[in-house]
Amino acid sequence: MSTNDRFDEFFKLLMFLEGGESNHSNDRGGHTKFGITQKLYDKHRDKYKKPHASVAGLTTGGARLVYREEFYKPVEYCDNIERHYNYFDMCVNSGYRNYKKMQIENPADIYKYRKDFFSKIAENDSSQKVFLRGWLNRLDVIKTYFETGLKIV
What we know:
The protein is mainly alpha-helical. The protein has one domain (3-148): Chitosanase, subunit A, domain 1 (Up-down Bundle), CATH 1.20.141. Helix content is 63%, strand content 4%. Strands 1-2-3 form a three-stranded antiparallel β-sheet. Helix 4 (81-94) runs parallel beside helix 6 (107-124) and helix 6 runs antiparallel to helix 7. It is globular. The two termini are 18 Å apart.
């Protein structure tokens, strides 16, 4: 599988997980669309010397470019596609710095690490408890996707 084909597969799964637009009052990222925060969208547009625009107007094509440039390319390529996706998803969902801390090879250990990571966030900040079920469901969907070959269309 080429790196472009792999990104295409990753992007489909990510869009399934992230959904559309959200503006939950407890979300540390604030207003998001396709999981992309206004702050990240502004940073990405700055990189290409484009004026800031509302994340509400972000298209799936624009989201694809942001995810490829800001998350997929910086993450270490792995032959093991499940590990590679989890690295990419950790970077998306928890930031590059936290992805770099999670240099684990065994996918089972990755899921345990990520579950513990999310649980600690909710434990340490009660405002984040509202998101814990969704974060854990996210991990279950990813695991099922790779265990069963589930296809996202």
